[in-house]
Design brief:
This protein has 5 helices and 2 strands; from the N terminus they run αααββαα. The protein has 125 residues and is mainly alpha-helical. It folds into 2 domains: 64 residues, Orthogonal Bundle (Arc Repressor Mutant, subunit A); 37 residues, no CATH class. A hairpin with a 3-residue loop joins strand 1 and strand 2. Helix 2 crosses helix 3. It is globular and about 50 Å long. The model has no long low-confidence stretch (mean pLDDT 89).
């Protein structure tokens, strides 16, 4: 999986890394048991500080998307099975997107159709 960082983005780099790994898991690009690069290796590849990658990995571990130990490195976990609800952070993100859509003049119906097309596109991949 290729991680691309937008150095001009307002989104912190550690969140860009986290988000792209989560999307890779959701898209099936990363499967359960697949090893991720070491912190040092990924930091070198992306040209970022090791602490930035470490912060992304810590967040992914806390969210149960990955696990790791010193001998085997970092590995993708089976996606967590949880109640069909969004995390507090995801709800905040969705609220921001919905607000942006509202300010851009999208009707609720158009917003829902846009969300549905993105959701179905992700399922098709």
């Amino acid at each position: 999986m290729l991680i691309c960082i937008d150095y001009e983005s307002e989104t912190p780099i550690y969140l860009q890394i986290r988000n792209q790994i989560v999307m890779g898991i959701a898209d099936g690009e990363l499967s359960e048991g697949e090893k991720l690069p070491t912190i040092r290796s990924l930091a070198n590849d992306l040209g970022v500080n090791m602490m930035t990658v470490s912060k992304a990995y810590q967040l992914l571990k806390a969210e149960s998307f990955i696990y790791g130990d010193r001998r085997n490195g970092v590995t993708v976990k089976k996606p967590p099975e949880s109640p069909k609800s969004l995390s507090t952070q995801s709800l905040e993100n969705l609220k921001l997107v919905a607000t942006d859509a509202k300010l851009a003049g999208l009707s609720l119906e158009d917003f829902i159709l846009t969300c549905k097309s993105i959701y179905e596109k992700e399922d098709a991949q």
